[in-house]
Amino acid sequence: MGSQEASSSRSEDCPFCQIATSETDTEILLSDDQLVCFRDSKPGATHHYLVVPRRHIDNCKALQGDDVSLVEQMEKMGRSILEEKKVCDLNDVRMGFHVPPFSSVPHLHLHTLAPASKMNFRSQLHYGPQSHWFITVDKVLSQLKTRGTVK
After folding, report:
1. At 118, is the secondary structure helix, strand, or coil?
2. Phi, psi (rounded to 5 degrees) for 15
3. Strand runs (DSSP E) across 29-141, as ranges?
4. Residue partners of 14: CB distance under 8 A and separation at least 6
5. Average pLDDT over every residue of 8-20
6. What is the pLDDT of residues 79-110, one digit of tens each?
7. Looking at the chain, which terminus has fewer C-beta neighbours within 10 angstroms, N or C?
8. Nearest 5°: CA angle at 136, between 15 and 148?
9. Are 69 and 75 in contact (CB under 8 A)?
């Protein structure tokens, strides 16, 4: 059983569940039947978007091996919003998840930031390669494919 089946479909007090069900005035930039994408309320880069599943999943540690396609779809939507917003250098991007207990909202969300090279010091601490609490989407996918869980 994957995390999608193991988690409740919606948490009443979860702000991202409320955004996903259009209960807030947050502007949805992209969406499909599984995911929604919107701007981060505290951007760490010129372009900073969150991609969240409509179904409530607590965080990246709750992901299982059969969630690989969900994470791949999240990454694809993150890249799509960057293309739609005309980000020129799609290699100058940081995409990943905060590892609990460093998640600001207890609902799985993929941070998509660009240009990564222009992030300030504070943003580098939160989302940069040296951050111990930020795991890239590539690393999450690798761990799901090899171990079936995120370390």
Report:
1. helix
2. -65, -30
3. 30-31, 35-39, 47-53, 94-98, 110-114, 134-136
4. 56, 105, 106, 107
5. 82
6. 999 999 999 899 999 999 999 888 889 999 99
7. N
8. 90
9. no
Q: How far apart are CA 19 and CA 127, in angstroms?
A: 23
What is the value of pTM for the model shown? 0.91
Please tell me whether the peptide bond between 106 and the residue prior to it is cis, using omega within 30 degrees of 0: no
The CATH class, in words, for 3-146 is alpha beta
Tens digits of residue pLDDT in 104-114:
899 999 999 99
- Residues 92, 114: contact at Cβ < 8 Å? yes
Picking from 107, 122, 121, 9, the residue whose alpha carbon sits closest to that of residue 50 is 107
Cβ 119 vs Cβ 84: under 8 Å: no
Q: Output phi, psi for 36, to 5 deg.
A: -130, 150
Catalytic residue numbers read 109
CA distance 135 to 141: 10
Dist CA 70 CA 20 (whole Å): 16
**High-pLDDT (> 70) share of the chain, %:** 93
**Type of residue found at 135:** I
